[in-house]
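Sat 14:20. Reprocessing the chain from the morning session after the first attempt stalled halfway. Input below, unchanged.
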Amino acid sequence: MKIDIHPNGIRLTGKAWEIKAKLKEAQKHYLYVKEWTDAVYSTKPKLTLVASKTPQK
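Finished this time. Tokens:
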């Protein structure tokens, strides 16, 4: 199953029973698709860039 979440909507690709199960799962958390997309795009990933030290000669 593949889930593509865009700012304007969601695309679910897969078998019918997979999509139905995913929608039922999402229904427990979100009332509208807009809430689902807002939740995904409101979380900002906290990436920490760590530079590796190269040994000096």
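Residues 16-27 form the longest helix (12 residues).
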